[in-house]
Specification:
about 350 residues; Neuraminidase; five-stranded antiparallel beta sheet; four-stranded antiparallel beta sheet
Length: about 350
C-alpha cells in the first residue's frame, strides 16, 4: 500500500520468550511438491457445535502460533499488496508486521500516542483498517481520535491527520474499533479502555460509551449510548445490519445486532448472541470481529473465536487458550489471523 511507511527508529532487540498455552511443536522444513513449507507451533483446538462448521474449518485444523512475546496484541489487518498482516501492540504503542517471507518486524512506532508527556495505560493504536484510498486508518487510544497515516512525513508526531476526535465538542474516550461502509461512512466504537484510569479517568468528557457514525458529509452522529463497553464492530455483507460486541464481562458479555432505519439511525436492537455464561469460566470477552462475504461472522469471545452464521447460530469456537482480542481474513479467505494476548495466531479455513 503506497501510503504506508515505517519510521526509522532505533529498536531494541525483541525478546520473544513468552509462550502460549498448550503449544505443540511441529517439524519445520516439511517438504511438498512446491518445495519446503515452514510449519509453526500449534495450540488449542476447534470446538464444533454444528456440522456446517466443517465447511468453514476442516476437521483436525488447529491454530498456529506465528509470533509471540507481545504485551497485548490487537487490531490485525491484512495488507493485500504486501501480502502481510499488521497488528497493534497497545501497551507498547507500536504496530508490528508479519509475513510468510520476512517473519516479524516492527512496522510503526508510535502508533496511538504522539504526545511527549509520559502517561500510563494502553496508549497505542487498537483497531486498524484501510479507507477507500488505501490509507491506513487507526483507532488511536492515547490521542483519543480516529486518524489516518499522513505519509510520507519524517516526524512521528506529525505523521497522522485527525479524521474525527469529538462529538458535540466533547472528546472521544478512546476509539477502539471501526468499520467502513461501502459509501465511505465510518462506524466507530468508543469505550474507555485506552484512558489512563479507564472509566474513572477525570479527563473523560462524555459520561457514556457510544457507537458513532462519521459520515462522508463530515457529520458525526451518535447511534447508541446504551452499551457499557462497545468494542468490535462489523456490517453484514448487504450492509443492512450492524453488529457490535459488548466486552463488559459477566452479564455484559454479548453481541448486539441492529437494523438501519431509512434515516440511517439504528432500530430493532437485539442481542445477537449472549456469552455471559461462558465469560465466567473462559479467558476473554466479546471483542473484535470480522464478517465474511458469505455472512459468516468470526467474533472473538470467551475461549477464542466464536463462529456464527448470519442467523446468530453458534457453529463452534476456535479455542486458542488465550484471551483473544481480534481477527481478520486474508484477501482469499484462506486464513483467519487472530491476535491472542501475547500471540499472533492463524488458522486455515476451507
Amino acid at each position: 500500500m503506497k501510503h504506508l511507511i515505517t519510521f526509522p527508529i532505533l529498536l531494541l532487540a525483541m525478546n520473544m520468550l513468552l509462550s502460549c498455552t498448550g503449544v505443540q511443536k511441529s517439524d519445520e522444513g516439511k517438504k511438498s511438491s512446491e518445495g519446503p513449507v515452514k510449519e509453526y507451533p500449534k495450540t488449542g483446538f476447534v470446538e464444533r457445535y454444528h456440522s456446517s462448521l466443517d465447511q468453514i474449518i476442516a476437521s483436525g485444523e488447529q491454530p498456529e502460533i506465528l509470533a509471540e512475546g507481545f504485551d497485548w496484541s490487537e487490531g490485525p489487518l491484512w495488507l493485500p499488496d504486501q501480502q502481510m498482516v499488521i497488528f497493534s501492540d497497545i501497551p507498547k504503542n507500536s504496530i508490528y508486521q508479519w509475513s510468510e517471507m520476512d517473519g516479524l518486524k516492527l512496522y510503526l512506532k508510535p502508533s496511538g500516542y504522539t504526545d511527549t508527556i509520559s502517561r500510563g495505560g494502553e496508549t497505542g493504536s487498537n483497531g486498524l483498517l484501510l479507507d477507500q484510498k488505501g490509507r491506513l486508518v487507526l483507532c488511536q487510544h492515547g490521542d483519543r481520535r480516529m486518524a489516518w497515516m499522513n505519509a510520507p512525513l519524517d516526524q512521528p508526531e506529525a505523521a497522522y491527520k485527525t479524521i474525527v476526535d469529538r462529538w458535540e465538542g466533547k472528546r472521544f474516550n478512546s476509539p477502539n474499533d471501526a468499520v467502513f461502509a461501502n459509501n465511505g461512512d465510518l462506524f466507530i466504537t468508543d469505550p474507555a479502555y485506552g484512558m489512563e484510569l479507564r472509566y474513572k479517568d477525570p479527563k473523560r468528557e462524555m459520561n457514556f460509551t457510544g457507537v458513532f457514525r462519521y459520515g462522508i458529509d463530515g457529520e458525526i452522529t451518535l447511534l447508541t449510548d446504551q452499551m457499557s463497553a462497545p468494542n468490535g464492530i462489523g456490517l453484514s455483507p448487504d450492509e443492512s445490519l450492524l453488529y457490535v460486541a459488548n466486552s463488559g464481562g459477566g452479564k455484559n458479555s454479548f453481541w448486539m445486532a441492529y437494523d438501519f432505519a431509512t434515516d440511517g439511525s439504528l432500530t430493532n436492537a437485539r442481542v445477537f448472541h449472549d456469552a455471559s455464561v461462558a465469560s465466567d469460566t473462559l479467558k476473554g470477552a466479546p471483542d473484535g470481529l470480522v464478517v465474511r462475504s458469505d455472512g459468516i461472522i468470526f467474533a472473538t469471545g470467551p475461549g477464542g473465536v466464536w463462529v456464527f452464521n448470519s442467523g446468530g447460530e453458534h457453529l463452534g469456537t476456535i479455542m486458542t487458550g488465550e484471551a483473544t482480542s481480534n481477527c481478520t481474513l486474508d484477501a482469499n479467505n484462506q486464513y483467519l489471523y487472530m491476535t491472542a494476548d501475547m500471540c499472533l495466531m492463524r488458522i486455515r479455513l476451507q
